[in-house]
């Protein structure tokens, strides 16, 4: 179904083959998403993980859903248990699963069923260096990302690390879907500028939904 003049849903914007921006798509669900984040953090607090090289990652992370992404000296992987508590990750809040599925469908990926949601927190100055997401089993499945709080400048490159990068402003409520030929593009986040978001304060939260297993 295409957007019409009478829809109140925002239109989808193609960014590149396989990549779609859904500007403001999460705004209508902002309160439910923030409540979901708070519920997850109460069970599985944000933490700085170690890179395989032994350095603390700048971004604070946790997970919900059947699988969670973890990094430590042994490498990057998905696992069912939170290494801090030894318990399963908290369940995906219903509002998360629904939003991710609807966004993927809007971008042309019906039947997306994420089994992992990584929650990233950026404080002013935090950056995420250029990388690919390749720890998942099936690269035909898209990735859906939801931005909340302070705005960020997102970098997206090509399929090789040295390819030219483009910049994209990400605002509170924006949703990105990366699939098909965009799925393995390099990407990162520029250092977060200071500021204060009226609902989330001095931080940016990103939710990344994946079918990992
Ligand atoms: C493009 N997170 O957690 S989300 C990550 O804002 C990650 O926290 C960033 O990259 C963040 O791995 C970016 C947007 C995103 C996510 C996955 C992608 C863009 C992508 C996979 C392929 C291409
Ligand atoms: Fe990534």
Structure notes:
The chain has helices at residues 30-43, 94-106; strands at 12-16, 19-22, 60-64, 68-72, 75-79, 116-122, 128-131, 143-149, 152-156, 166-170, 175-178, 187-189, 204-210. It has a single domain, classed as Sandwich (Jelly Rolls), CATH 2.60.120. A hairpin with a 2-residue loop joins strand 4 and strand 5. A 7-stranded antiparallel sheet has the order 1-2-11-8-13-6-3, covered by helices on one side. It is α+β, with helices and mostly antiparallel strands and 213 residues long. The model has no long low-confidence stretch (mean pLDDT 96). The longest helix is centred in the first third of the chain and has 14 residues, at 30-43. N-(carboxycarbonyl)-S-(naphthalen-2-ylmethyl)-L-cysteine binds next to strand 6, strand 8, strand 11, strand 12 and strand 13. N-(carboxycarbonyl)-S-(naphthalen-2-ylmethyl)-L-cysteine binds at residues 118, 120, 128, 133, 143, 145, 156, 176, 178, 182-183, 185, 187, 189, 206, 208.
The tally of domains stands at: 1
Order of helices and strands: EEHEEEHEEEEEEEE
Estimated radius of gyration: 16 Å
The name of the CATH superfamily reads Alpha-ketoglutarate-dependent dioxygenase AlkB-like
- Strands, total number: 13
What is the third-level CATH name, the topology?
A: Jelly Rolls
CATH class: Mainly Beta
> What's the shape?
globular
